[in-house]
Amino acid sequence: MARSAKSTFRCAECGWTTLKWVGRCGECQAWGTVEEVGPAVSGGLVAAKVSSPARPITEIDVEAAHAAPTGLEELDRVLGGGLVPGGVLLLAGEPGVGKSTLLLEVAALCADSGPVLYVTGEESTGQVRLRAERLGALSSKLFLAAETSVAALAGHVDEIAPKLLIVDSVQTMSSPDVPGVPGGVTQVREVAGSLIRLAKARGIATVLVGHVTKDGSIAGPRLLEHLVDVVLQFEGDRHSRLRMLRAVKNRYGPTDEVGCFELTDSGIIGLPDPSGLFLTRRNEPVPGTCVTVTLEGRRPLIAEVQALVAPTALPQPRRATSGLDSARVAMVMAVLERRAGLRIGSSDVYASTVGGVRLGEPSIDLALALALAGSHTDLALPRGFIAIGEVGLAGDVRAVSGVQRRLSEAQRLGFTKAIVPHNSDEPVDGIEAIGVEDLGEALRLALPAKQRR
Hints:
21 strands; ATP binding; 24% helix; Rossmann fold; elongated; alpha/beta; 4-stranded mixed beta sheet; Ribosomal Protein S5, domain 2
């Protein structure tokens, strides 16, 4: 007897398949995402008619695949030159971070060279028009449509033939071909697949706006990130004007570039030189502050770390951080107390950055340690001083990447002296770099009159 076809099961998050149902995906380890998709198809492969004949690679026309600049230099920097015709971009970010504002400005700039279709599923066209007036992003070639059906969206594309399509957002769109509510796994997968096929067939640069979950990851199936060509993450604190655009995936350019923007009442502005936002201008040095240079992708940024160590009468001292990893701060405090003899464990400790920037790179450890030590001893670091290096648990100062690039940026902004790891033998004209092996040596150089309490 012929065996009956068995059902297969697929993970809705990553697409992993199995022949039996399991509660937990064997690939992405997600719970409750494995669903039945029907019997497995077996048998010989039948050849079908090709859509276009294969040609030698030397005869392929590459002119149509060149990126077209958007008009926003910071966005073009992250994309690797601009938007590629037929490319599909997924822009994700928290609510209120400025995704729609950014894309509306991009749409108005791109409308100067051809029609642009902006499809909104979350707002009315009147609301989008009001925002466009406030931003000064009005153009006769920028078309607005409020739709939640991907079939109706395809009708607008047939009528307008845009060079750029923006869908805000993919979670609000639905397809009549599959069941499920908008935003569900099945609907998001089908809508994204339909839009990608439409973009590739018509050669339309397409931007999809995606929601994020509470932990900051992109909502919907993980398969969505694999289908698109570019994944961008728009980050920023709603209490700060600074916004950063990072490339998580990019088939057409680098993935280590970062774009910096400033969100204002009149729109969003690119910041080609954002280092000044992360520094405090003061006449005299203040204890508890230290400047460092962090690398955001390939871009060096000057940032200031501030610390306040204050005595307390509470049995359990307070610990508060802003813009810094609390676990990293606790580790540096423990190294200072154990390896440098600074008794700060019984004091309140507050550590933060300037300008709302988030610093998670290990190269800021040395600057954080010097800021904590300066606040504890009430001694200020010299003017024009920076510190770069990772601090180990043994109190050693470890090497970090891109020291020469960091020092060049510090020299450009007027800094004259730097403490770096001892094996960073990359001199830069105009700035004195002193190599140190451990934290104690760094404290003696930066705070020569250090008093241990």
